[in-house]
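request received
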Amino acid sequence: MISLDNKRLVELKKEVFEANMALPEAGLVKLTWGNVSVIDRLLGVIVIKPSGVAYDKMKVEDMVVANLAGIPIETNGLTPSSDLLTHTTLYQAFPNIGAVVHTHSKWAVAWAQAKRDIPAYGTTHADTFYGRVPCTRELTDSEVSADYERETGNVIVSTFTERRLDPEATPGVIVSSHGPFTWGKTAKQAVEHSLILDEVADMAFVSEQLAHNLSSIPSFLLNKHYYRKHGENAYYGQK
Amino acid sequence: MISLDNKRLVELKKEVFEANMALPEAGLVKLTWGNVSVIDRLLGVIVIKPSGVAYDKMKVEDMVVANLAGIPIETNGLTPSSDLLTHTTLYQAFPNIGAVVHTHSKWAVAWAQAKRDIPAYGTTHADTFYGRVPCTRELTDSEVSADYERETGNVIVSTFTERRLDPEATPGVIVSSHGPFTWGKTAKQAVEHSLILDEVADMAFVSEQLAHNLSSIPSFLLNKHYYRKHGENAYYGQK
Amino acid sequence: MISLDNKRLVELKKEVFEANMALPEAGLVKLTWGNVSVIDRLLGVIVIKPSGVAYDKMKVEDMVVANLAGIPIETNGLTPSSDLLTHTTLYQAFPNIGAVVHTHSKWAVAWAQAKRDIPAYGTTHADTFYGRVPCTRELTDSEVSADYERETGNVIVSTFTERRLDPEATPGVIVSSHGPFTWGKTAKQAVEHSLILDEVADMAFVSEQLAHNLSSIPSFLLNKHYYRKHGENAYYGQK
Amino acid sequence: MISLDNKRLVELKKEVFEANMALPEAGLVKLTWGNVSVIDRLLGVIVIKPSGVAYDKMKVEDMVVANLAGIPIETNGLTPSSDLLTHTTLYQAFPNIGAVVHTHSKWAVAWAQAKRDIPAYGTTHADTFYGRVPCTRELTDSEVSADYERETGNVIVSTFTERRLDPEATPGVIVSSHGPFTWGKTAKQAVEHSLILDEVADMAFVSEQLAHNLSSIPSFLLNKHYYRKHGENAYYGQK
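response:
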């Protein structure tokens, strides 16, 4: 037993549990194909879904607590999600994010399998993602063999570094041949970003079928929609 | 507090509330991506959804009352939908409409992103839209920067003016790179037009994939179906 | 009041009502876009859905009784479906059918708008439709103007006559630029045929996208699947 | 009445019943288009769904018991699924499988009608299927005429033999012009494989539309994902 504030841990487990349960409800996850984690940077803990547990059997207390290095410290006897080290890598590199979501949602996976960025074709996209959603390069044989889940995190981080992307303005990515990861301030927001990513992936697919050589929306419209919702001059929503 | 007939305002708020709630139920809206307003031209008021409020939290009394210039006059402490000035512009230009609906429904957005009118390929379309559903031109940088929501209304209106379209016979439009707006006599009818627009957008997409160089339906069939349902010789439905 | 066996009429109305209600439940009908009728050839009556009545308001007693010429004889004050004369024409030409269904289901409409027969690409199709589902020619201007609904029936019938199709072996059709009609022994079976038609229309669309110049299934496989379910040597299902 | 352990038979019937009921719930089966069986190799019995019985009428005791040659031995008066001999053939050839599922799920059928293997384009696929899901050759006229259902099993088995595929590593197949069969240790697992097969068929379709000349995932990634979940070094899920 560790000396953590137990009440706070229960809160975190509840947040992670509810966000995980929201995924199949939103049609983003089938079977056990998804996971959500949150981080409490003060406590130095991450709480994440256990690996491969059916959603209809899962309970709040099954959420696994790990330290920032990915070592489980409170487990209820369960193994954490096998993607835990991808999550820890993202938390380390992106200091302002509070939650990470991974799914195999259909449309985002389809783009990942096509190894293509998702272009910003409209305002639905621009409201949440400031420009295209990047698709990482493929992992190499040695990356996959050595430390697969951590390297998955690394390839995401290096995609953001190399392209000079701000993870707050682009709160998601698709990993080549694999699928989407999204993040946010809270688990709820990270789940919303997963939902939006899948929706814009779907719309972008149809738009491309309807018109060839489609170009991305102009930067002034991208700016308008993104900053209507984000930053100090935002005026969408309630104060 | 203003001296409006309170009972009538409650009726209007209820109408707007119910129409807003119908949108996610019909699969036309995810998260907070939609808004409905109604106008009472005698009272000189518009009632519209508040901005960015979750559907499962929204109450009848949260509907915001504004005057025809878009100035909120009864708000329950809430900001009106950020698209309010698009709605007021439409009400001003189209004197016979009583309600406006905006969504980011998938199929209509996909055509908007492809920057294409939706052709009238069949009777499902012709039953409601007398000819193609127009896609506006793109807004310019200065239009977006200056007064974005009002200019969105203006580009819709000028599309109808330039193409000599009757907003009663074509009760909807798609705004380039953005998405659909529809209207009707009542909020319920405007919502139905949103649903129909998305459905015919879907069907038209599939038809184009099935047959290249498809032509629109002949005008005699368009006329037959439209006037079977509309105007003094209509014989569809009950008296 | 006419001297019909009232108990039998109530049975027929119930059959028609339930079949109509099954359409939106199966996702085949939105709003009021569909209708089912049944015929009792001994009594000389057709019972059909009223025109344009919302499904959630519709009651058993609203089903309209008409004679074989399409003249309403018991109406509960309601107008019958505007497509009634299409139904009467089909009943007259196809003496072995007991029920007719019309919908604007998405995939069947998409093929109708593409003005293409739906090829028999697999056993799902062959289990119910003995060969391609025909798409009629387009109606002419004078046919549409003169007696539109009856001519819609006529063009279906002439499609079957000209192509020497057996309406029992091909229990459905798509009308060019319009949508599907199906039929069966009972209302329930006719509704099932609508569902199957839409499903095979969907599958055929995807198959064509996956492989160009796809050919229909060989006749020995078509025969096997069709006759496994139909005729005196059928062995699918229970006796 | 036969001298089988009745309690064990009831267990098997319950397993088959529940797995059958899971198919329409998962959207994999419409009407009566599917069947599940399990085998008890010690008892020498197969339990399978009755033929053409509506899901909402079906009861546990309607599940038909047959011997390994496909001869019904406890039937509750019902005929077994017409596909029984396909199931027996698979059980005979694949000694480690405990359950078989057949559906006409949309996406898998679409690939079967296109007569194409489903390529392994991503990790969603690789988590369950170790490489492409094979599509059989078409059956010949004489195979269809002589002993159709058994020959369907035979063409599946010869596909696995000729391509040197391990039925445990590739727990499913699509039969040309027909549809998918999957298998597993238990009925529940075989149903999951049906669901996964349809999902990866859907994703692969979209990916191909998004990028031409797409190649399968590299073997090191295929190996990683497959063996993360299967075999003695698996680390996905709970022990």
